[in-house]
């Protein structure tokens, strides 16, 4: 997306850069697995004052889940690993990237394990 201030003819701040991604998904019975990535381009089309360029980055993610029924409830056990490579990245759309840089990068590697119940 290209966004321009029509009064000053400058780029608008905090516009998302081009992003592409892909995920491979596999399922067999109650098991599911996913592995994928999101690639964000650099954002260097910014206004002269009050914005910061951001580098491009790629975030890799993986997840596994197991589904089961217990009485009247559907249970899903899951494990999710985000930003597998622990890439240091800054969001072009976050005001924190401009106001408190470099203190507010995107989250590093994280593992979430849990149980979801629906009934």
Topology:
Layout (H helix, E strand, L loop, with lengths): L18 E10 L2 E10 L16 E14 L2 E10 L12 H5 L10 E9 L1
Antiparallel strand pairs: 1-2, 2-3, 3-4, 4-5
Q: Could you explain how this protein is built, in words?
A:
Helix content is 4%, strand content 45%. The protein starts with 18 loop residues before the first strand and ends with a strand. It is mainly beta and 119 residues long. The model has no long low-confidence stretch (mean pLDDT 94). The chain has a five-stranded antiparallel β-sheet, with no helix packed on it.
List keywords for this structure.
single chain, 119 residues, mainly beta, 5-stranded antiparallel beta sheet, 5 strands, 4% helix
Order of helical and strand elements: EEEEHE
The dominant shape is elongated
What composes the largest sheet? Answer: 5 strands, antiparallel
**For the terminal residues, how far apart are their CA atoms?**
41 Å
Name the structural class.
mainly beta
User: In angstroms, what is the radius of gyration?
Assistant: 19 Å
Mean pLDDT: 94
